[in-house]
Amino acid sequence: MATLRDIKRRIVGVKSTQQITKAMKMVAAARLRRAQENIINARPYSRKISEVLQNLLAIEKNFNNPLFVEREVKKVALVVVTSDRGLCGGFNMNVIRSVEEMIKTDLAPFFDQNNLMIYCLGKKGNDYFTKRNYPVIGSHPGIFSNLKFEFASGLVKDLTTKYLNGEIDKVIVVYNEFKSVIQQKTVAEQLIPILPFDSHKDESKQVDFIYEPNKARIIETLLPKHLNAQMWRVLLDSYAAELGARMTAMDMATENAKELIRSLNLTYNSKRQAAITTEILEIVSGANALKES
């Protein structure tokens, strides 16, 4: 049975943990504001460049580019985006479980034939899949401590080159999409080849601009920008979702610590009161024994 000293030590320990979780919550909240601004600012650019491409492709119907060609899939590249640090609830395990489910179902034939390649962005996913001998050919831990657009464009260039050379036939990105501070959604998106855009627009209302040098050249120029913007949006989404998950997890941990301290204080006071009562009874009993003698 725990003594009063043991309970007191545990209360001190829980209070120290509470201070840490509270500080981590405040740090995550401060970083989240900037991350949320970044993703909100990046989404309109990503949508607009997709819209411009969509309009151009609707007009230039004879345009051909390998990045739009859906060919027979023999090799698949899976880009897994997790965080570099833990203490963010189920943020990382949601992505990891989703990836493992894909490998067991849709991607099972490619995995069994060694035609699956995994790119791990973030330390947690890299550690998990590397230790379990998954085919990790791209490891990028520590990227979120200094997230830069150049990393996204470099990764896209590498994947695009391998796709054009026939080394891979499809690229799928799995990440947590930022919805709100308390909500993240695990998403699997096909990055390459580029899926057909929504074509339900009324062509009669489209304005036919004059393009220089020509539509095909503009589309060729916009394609890498489009892919870079999508990958950059994915990284910003994941980082904002990570901070939101960490802020929520640390808030819950702080509240749990508060409740545990309250419970320990009740136990401590109860035991202390019982000990004092026992001591008083012993003193009274001793005094009565002296009187009788």
- Beta strand %: 5-15%
CATH structural fold name: Pyruvate Kinase, Chain: A, domain 1
CATH C-level class is Alpha Beta
The first-to-last residue Cα distance is 37 Å
Neighbour order of strands in the largest sheet? 3-2-1-4-5
Features:
293 residues, alpha/beta, Pyruvate Kinase, Chain: A, domain 1, five-stranded mixed β-sheet, 6 helices, elongated
Helix-strand blueprint:
Blueprint: H1 4-59, E1 76-81, H2 91-104, H3 108-112, E2 116-121, H4 123-131, E3 136-140, H5 149-164, E4 170-180, E5 183-192, H6 215-292
Parallel strand pairs: 1-2, 1-4, 2-3
Antiparallel strand pairs: 4-5
Helix pairs in contact: 1-6, 5-6
Descriptive notes:
By secondary structure, the protein is of the alpha/beta class. The chain has six helices and five strands. It has a single domain (23-197, 207-249), classed as Pyruvate Kinase, Chain: A, domain 1. Helix content is 61%, strand content 13%. Strands 3-2-1-4-5 form a five-stranded mixed sheet. Helix 1 (4-59) runs antiparallel to helix 6 and helix 5 (149-164) crosses helix 6. It is elongated, with a radius of gyration of 29 Å. The model has no long low-confidence stretch (mean pLDDT 85).
